[in-house]
Amino acid sequence: MSRSPQLxxxxxxxxxxxxxxxxxxxxxxxxxxxxxxxxxxxxxxLLELANGAYAAQSDSAALDDAGRYALELxxxxxRQAAHVDPLQLDLSAPLDVLPARLDGLDAISLxxxxxxxxxxxxxxxxxxxxxxxxxxxxxxxxxxxxxxxxCAGFGVGAGEEGWSIFYVAKxxxxxxxxxxxxxxxxRWSADAVVSGVDSFQVLYGLDTDTPRxxxxxxxxxxxxxxxxxxxxxxGLPPQELKRRTWWKRVVSVRVAxxxxxxxxxxxxxxxxxxxxxxxxxxxxxxQGDPGTVLREDALPEGLRxxxxxxxxxxxxxxxxxx
Length: 322
Description:
The protein is of the alpha+beta class and about 325 residues long. It has one domain. The protein has helices at about 25-80, 220-230, 240-245, 280-285, and strands at about 100-105, 110, 120, 130-135, 160-170, 175-185, 190-195, 195-205, 220, 250-265, 275, 295, 305-315. The chain has a five-stranded antiparallel sheet with strand order 1-4-5-6-7, covered by helices on one side. A four-stranded antiparallel sheet has the order 9-8-10-13.
């Protein structure tokens, strides 16, 4: 006959049943651990998804802001190319002998301290271009009246020549960035506009009609304009070439900017193709214009899984631009 366990007589009756419990069995413990691990893994996955969604949204917002800001800055600079201050206009000097207000280079980079665009460097960021805008100042004093600003935001006074030059160069971390080059009070300088540039491309709308009607008949790159000038300038004196240069027939500027985010947040390996000026240009003239068609799988491995945005704009020059 088995002896039932004896309860301690000094314990209260309500506590006596707990003395019979001996803990969890091994199967019960394993089930509890499995459930706990499942809950932990689900929570970690949810946290990872939430963090990825936040990173994607943050990168997307940053790219949108950067792209809009860059296009607005370039557009403002191009429109200033047509400015003429009537109070400073010398009617005795013909305007058509002045230098063209627009200039550019294809698949070239620049240095920030050199003058203008006369010292080109090896291109970076998939053959990115250079866009140069010059404009006269307005108002008395070194900074003028504030109505005309270069791309760095500094005013240009009457009698001075302002410059806004856009090009792509790499910073100290090796990241390609769109830069604004300008002539300061004593020297040339350059500031970053936006970083994470995959390609910066420029086309120029030419008015080829005679007489001119102010509408672009075709869009070409800077190399094509230089080739037209080379054919035009054969046998012409320099002053005549300056008057008749094709740069003075540019009536609009088309800009395309492809940017990437700061982090590799996409799950795919990146195989998208970007046609910066659309399929029509990609099918023809883009063959000789590097950077206007870009495939992600041709980029370095560390850049393929970045978020990307393509920004483009066409800026018409006001009537009177030279």
